[in-house]
Amino acid sequence: MGGAVMRYKERLLIFGCGAVGSIYAKSLSLAGYPVSVCTRGQRLSELSKRGLLYREGNRTLRCPVRLVKDSAGSYDFIFVTVRREQAEEAFRQLADSECKNIVSMINNPDGYESWEKILGRGRLIPAFPGAGGSIEGGVLYGGLTPSFLQKTSFGEIGGERTARIYALKRIFLRSHIPFAICPRMYDWQLCHLAMVVPLGDAIYEGGGNHIDAGRSRALMKKTVRRIRSNLWLLKKSGIRILPGEMKLFLLLPEPVLSASLSAFYCSESGERFIYRHAEKARAEMELLHRELYRILKKRREVQ
Length: 303
Description:
Layout: E1 12-15, H1 19-30, E2 35-38, H2 41-50, E3 52-56, E4 59-63, E5 66-67, E6 77-80, H3 87-94, E7 102-105, H4 113-119, E8 124-128, E9 131-136, E10 139-144, E11 152-154, H5 163-174, E12 179-181, H6 185-205, H7 210-215, H8 217-236, H9 248-251, H10 254-265, H11 268-280, H12 282-301
Parallel strand pairs: 1-2, 1-6, 2-5, 3-10, 6-7, 7-8, 11-12
Antiparallel strand pairs: 3-4, 8-11, 9-10
Helix pairs in contact: 6-8, 6-11, 6-12, 8-10
């Protein structure tokens, strides 16, 4: 066992405590931050009765968090970890919060203007999680995404390096959460969706099973071509390809990409970071599919 855990003063609220929210609540709490969580439905019942339980190796452990019914109170940062179709309602609930720093860890191809209209300008910090997993029987199975796959990415809408961005950086450093400060979060999110929407589509077209999808050469080839086509269109329309590693989809030979994608689908990481989300969040994935290709169509028409 290590020494005593440091205690930090920044008060944090996780708004929405599914798998992703639970992963961040756990990481931040174990690092020594006072973490509150606000959720509803079955997850609220689970947390009320048993607390935040998570699986580590062959043990089930409990993480100290405070359960609250709403966002009332003083928080330094609120992390919004709901699904895309729940975003506007979540922001309406947070509109009257005292907190000035609301971190939106949500897929969003439409930009941030509508969210800022709800919250008020200057409060939103666009971000995206580097985490994946699921809640099974009230227990969290999952964790932070390996740094080489995806870091927690965040930045001001205009790309400025502000005091609150550095404060968020310190929080992630202390919590051992891999992160990247991104100067163009909107570009980053569009590129991310250009990749993950075809990845999710492949699960559904493969019969809902990541192993079957990964073993289909034709489906893996089709998925690579879809990702490439999406990224090329974004690049031609003026979007910067971010993160830089995403450019590999434009540079590497198709057979190499198809083989790599097949191996990833058939791996434990493929199950955790693609299959589980595609299975449990199909409504969100279908919404993001429609939103992405609507935006790509508009960008194609103006070229």
